[in-house]
């Protein structure tokens, strides 16, 4: 508790608040842009850090986490930074071992396969003890940012974290985790409630440490039918947003329930989020119609456009901005994260196109 009190007063003054303004639906001079996975292996300077240090050691070393968080900002005029970490630090904090296998991704040597395995999950969790390294990285990064742009903190959503814990890796059919929902509804809700509690405590800690906005990643929500989403995702997403909002109404909250387009209306009416992320499987104009003016939208360029050179990127960005219909209540991003194989010129062209084209639209 003691480690972060009053630190907010010591942070440098924010110079570019375009992203925060767009989250709140205020007037902006241009559409702000940041990119999911903007720090990562497409950057040679990231690869050179990773050459000597394994993935979770970068996350656990505030100096290194801070360094790689700032790398993309030194290349591109992005409007927000996102702390370098991973959603899987939460299962680790609950006593579940997670390894990062180079070229493969996350691997859990002992996944939570049976309901008996739930007894192995550490709960409750002292987030200051288990995740204090993330808080330290946030505080350090907020200082080193020198107010250039706001710093975003994040967590995985309960359902997405539960799928990893049960499947033991990504890239599966989700048959184990989805079977849980159908076969063991009580235990599924129990596991999701535990994860929700840890996520909320973790996000409170991130705010205290200096995070200026928070994103909840429900990357695998698209695996669930509307009825299953309503039962196993929505209530927990709403609980997280509401509990944070009750104490910190000033911190913008972003929910990215990837591909769950049917949920946009419910999420926008829940009052739990300021911003909803969308991927490329929904037309921006349709998403805008579903959420009205209740929330800001964030997205949604197909990451694969960034392979296609400046002209295609510019044309597709123009189409995207036009489809959103208004430059208000909008944050440009991709519909998902950067790929390791992306050329550096991709995000460079995208950020430039968003800034230039949106300025033209606003000044017209
Ligand atoms: O060796 C490496 O460098 C591994 C690549 C990598 C990176 C750069 C992983 C492994 N995680 C990260 C960082 C990361 N992960 C960030 C950093 C901040 C930034 O955006 O710059 C963030 C926000 C995440 C969040 C994350 N991790 C998500 C949610 C977002 C999404 O992409 O849907 C998920 C699903 C993960 C799990 C994960 N971690 C890493 C990989 C390769 C994966 C996905 C594996 C899979 O497909 O299941």
TrEMBL record:
GO terms for molecular function: uroporphyrinogen decarboxylase activity. SUPFAM superfamilies: UROD/MetE-like. Its main location: cytoplasm. GO terms for biological process: heme biosynthetic process. Homodimer. It catalyses: uroporphyrinogen III + 4 H(+) = coproporphyrinogen III + 4 CO2. The lineage of its organism: Eukaryota, Amoebozoa, Evosea, Eumycetozoa, Dictyostelia. It comes from the Eukaryota. PROSITE patterns: UROD_1, UROD_2. It is an enzyme of class 4 (lyase). Belongs to the uroporphyrinogen decarboxylase family. Catalyzes the decarboxylation of four acetate groups of uroporphyrinogen-III to yield coproporphyrinogen-III. InterPro entries: UROD/MetE-like_sf, Uroporphyrinogen_deCO2ase_HemE, Uroporphyrinogen_deCOase. Its EC number is 4.1.1.37. Keywords: Cytoplasm, Decarboxylase, Lyase, Porphyrin biosynthesis. Gene3D superfamilies: 3.20.20.210. HAMAP family: URO_D (MF_00218). NCBIfam families: hemE. This is Uroporphyrinogen decarboxylase. Pathway: Porphyrin-containing compound metabolism; protoporphyrin-IX biosynthesis; coproporphyrinogen-III from 5-aminolevulinate: step 4/4. One of its GO terms (cellular component) is cytosol. Residues 32-41, 152-168 form the Uroporphyrinogen decarboxylase (URO-D) domain. It is found in: Cytoplasm.
């Amino acid at each position: 508790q003691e480690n972060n009190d009053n630190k907010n007063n010591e942070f440098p003054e924010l110079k570019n608040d375009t992203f925060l303004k767009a989250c709140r639906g205020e007037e902006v001079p241009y559409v702000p842009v940041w990119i999911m996975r903007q720090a990562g292996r497409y950057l040679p300077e990231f690869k050179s850090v990773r050459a000597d240090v394994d993935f979770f050691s970068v996350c656990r070393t505030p100096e290194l986490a801070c360094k790689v968080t700032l790398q993309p900002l030194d290349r591109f005029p992005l409007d927000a930074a996102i702390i370098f970490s991973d959603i899987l630090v939460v299962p680790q904090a609950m006593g579940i071992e997670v390894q990062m296998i180079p070229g493969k991704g996350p691997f859990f040597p002992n996944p939570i396969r049976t309901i008996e395995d739930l007894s192995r999950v550490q709960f409750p969790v002292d987030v200051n003890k288990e995740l204090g390294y993330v808080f330290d990285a946030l505080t350090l990064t907020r200082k080193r940012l020198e107010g250039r742009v706001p710093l975003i903190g994040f967590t995985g959503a309960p359902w997405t974290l539960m799928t990893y814990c049960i499947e033991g890796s990504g890239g599966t059919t989700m048959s184990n985790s989805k079977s849980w929902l159908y076969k063991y509804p009580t235990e599924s809700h129990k596991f999701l409630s535990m994860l929700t509690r840890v996520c909320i405590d973790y996000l409170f800690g991130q705010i205290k440490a200096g995070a200026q906005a928070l994103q909840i990643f429900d990357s695998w929500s698209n695996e669930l039918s509307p009825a299953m989403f309503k039962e196993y995702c929505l209530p927990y997403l709403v609980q997280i947003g509401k509990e944070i909002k009750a104490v910190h109404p000033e911190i913008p909250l972003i929910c990215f329930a990837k591909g769950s387009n049917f949920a946009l209306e419910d999420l926008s009416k829940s009052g739990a989020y300021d911003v909803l992320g969308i991927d490329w499987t929904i037309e921006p104009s349709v998403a805008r119609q579903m959420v009205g003016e209740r929330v800001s939208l964030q997205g949604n360029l197909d990451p694969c456009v960034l392979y296609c050179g400046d002209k295609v990127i510019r044309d597709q960005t123009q189409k995207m901005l036009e489809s959103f219909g208004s430059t208000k209540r909008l944050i440009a991003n991709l519909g998902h994260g950067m790929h390791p194989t992306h050329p550096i010129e991709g995000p460079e062209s995208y950020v430039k196109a968003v800034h230039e084209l949106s300025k033209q639209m606003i000044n017209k």
